[in-house]
């Protein structure tokens, strides 16, 4: 049964106030599937269905709802009920949600939250956007290294209900300085020796991130070390939170989407494509298109500058699209490869010379093979065999220029502290168009003696 077909039944349950079936609906499926079946409901209808779920299950289902519906629920439903929901949400999730809710609504909700949750929200909201502090959760398992294994198990059992994860158990001193880590597996394995101190079995060589580290760097660390969570510490090595793997997945998805926008020369959208206003969408696309438009004017001026050559050797015009597209395509390929390698951590700024050598070799190989094909195509159109040689030489030089520009520009942007993805394919193609025309015309002038 599809989601759409299920909606009339859901609405009928609500109309009849069928508590038993609504409760079963909330409990029978995975929270993500339950949220999918509710997609066509209005925000009030969704909230009415969620009232039949236990508090923890309600939070899980709510987290899988579309963000726009979540905001609508928070802004329109009973303030006291919403305050309870927000209080039950994981710390990082509720901060992200409240950041998108109208400020006047947040001002009404904050006094209704428990003091501890209110302080936590204010604290997490104070960290820079896209920093480790902004995406961490403050709910994690704490242990003292002086506890025995038996005492640690009892302590974790006491804490477990309020924790987001207990994969890793963090060992801290009285001032919350991070001392070590014990995995849940290690603790269970040590149950046979219940009087062993936690300090004897904990790991001391830990991978951590600082509060102000960029979220992309955090994601790279978690992926590199294959961690389920990573501790966040301040400058004094106090443990202030953890970032779990699900948050890292969200970061990686967010960064991938942002890079995709940049690669297409579009400002990242804050909402989905269909939910973004046409005026906003026009602005986000139009600004970059305008910049690229003026960049394309340089191509016109370049052609105009070589008008005499084109009039004297008119057959050159036939190959202009081939020349500029080949150079642009080779540059785009190189830019994509280097941007991807930088994102994956496979290439660093220190590898710039290796990148140049590889791309030069690739430029010669690709340009040589494409140039040979171009020469065969040029023979019927050129006045003679000697004239046709302009095409393969130009293609070789343009492809070499494209591979070098496409590979070095992302590295330059990274060196300047900018996102390499900003050096998007349209920018590379526009640059190579101009360089391609200049190379083409000058090769023709040199070889054809015009």
Summed up:
The protein is mainly alpha-helical and 450 residues long. Helices cover 65% and strands 6% of the residues.
Q: Average the pLDDT over all residues and give the rounded result.
A: 86
Measured distance between first and last alpha carbons:
74 Å
Poorly predicted spans:
none
The appropriate CATH architecture of the largest domain is Orthogonal Bundle
The CATH superfamily name of the largest domain is SLC41 divalent cation transporters, integral membrane domain
Main sheet characteristics: 3 strands, mixed
Fraction of residues in H or I helices: 55-70%
The largest beta-sheet arranges its strands as: 1-2-3
Number of helical segments with 4 or more residues: 23
Kindly state the number of beta strands. Answer: 6
Say what the CATH topology of the largest domain is: Tetracycline Repressor, domain 2
Reading off the top of the CATH hierarchy, the class of the largest domain is best stated as: Mainly Alpha
Q: What best-fitting shape do the alpha-carbon axes yield?
A: elongated
Q: Over the alpha carbons, how many angstroms does the gyration radius reach?
A: 30 Å
